[in-house]
Design goal:
Shape: globular
Radius of gyration: 19 Å
Structural class: alpha+beta
Number of helices: 6
Order of helices and strands: EEHEEEHHHEEHH
Low-confidence stretches: 223-228
Mean pLDDT: 83
Number of domains: 2
CATH class of the largest domain: Alpha Beta
């Protein structure tokens, strides 16, 4: 067993556990689009970033691929982490604005404006479908093709695969395919209809290093009841 500190709390986990798994064990919510239990970690979406270390040497890492280490100090919702997640979500939303999954995540993180040019793509290259087809269905019918801006997912040479079982598993787990939203104009890119109001505690100065990580947020519950 190894011991590390997450958001000021000591936790002991088995060797080989990732920071994301350790945080989930304690109940700290960390958003992710490319991670799913039962599939190998990939670290593509970068939404699961956390801050490790202290002072000027502190850095952001993807929690789904970073191994828990003895004495490691982790913050899952610091000001730096929240800013990074919001930027990542804005870029993902620009790439795939009609994904309701991404829209809801953006709304939940307080994003109310679309600042980047929309691409109207239907893939964020999270790799979930590739890993599902390979690791769960044992088919390897699809995979990554090309590099850089030409990178895409499909069958080799765009020829229909003989090993594809048309199971639909790739579509079932795809964050771009799960739910599609008709809002596709920049001013309507973030519906927000399914998200809660921005937690009031995030605006307070004493939460600069450690923002609210409770789900549901106690402060939000109290404020909602008080308003009523």
């Amino acid at each position: 067993m190894i011991t590390l500190k997450i958001n000021g709390l000591d936790v002991s986990v088995e060797q080989g556990t990732t920071v994301l798994e350790a945080a989930n064990f304690l109940g700290f919510p960390i958003p992710t689009l490319c991670h799913m239990e039962g599939l190998s970690p990939y670290g593509a979406c970068r939404l699961c970033v956390v801050e490790i270390g202290e002072g000027p040497k502190a850095k952001l890492v993807s929690s789904c691929t970073y191994p828990a280490q003895e004495g490691l100090k982790v913050r899952t919702a610091s000001n730096r982490v929240i800013r990074a997640r919001r930027m990542i979500l804005e870029l993902l939303l620009a790439s795939c604005p009609q994904s309701k999954t991404i829209q809801d995540l953006a709304s939940a993180h307080g994003i109310r404006q679309q600042r980047f040019r929309q691409e109207y793509e239907d893939c964020i290259l999270c790799g979930l479908c590739v890993r599902m087809c390979d690791e769960q269905m044992m088919a390897k019918a699809i995979g990554f093709r090309g590099r850089g801006e030409n990178r895409s997912i499909g069958t080799p040479f765009d020829v229909k695969s003989d090993v594809c079982r048309t199971c639909g598993g790739c579509m079932y787990i795809c964050p771009a395919c799960q739910l599609r939203c008709t809002y596709n104009e920049p001013e309507k890119a973030i519906c927000g209809g399914c998200a809660n109001l921005t937690p009031p505690c995030l605006e307070k100065e004493h939460f600069d290093d450690m923002m609210c990580y409770m789900d549901p947020c106690v402060a939000c519950e109290i404020e909602t009841k008080t308003d009523k």
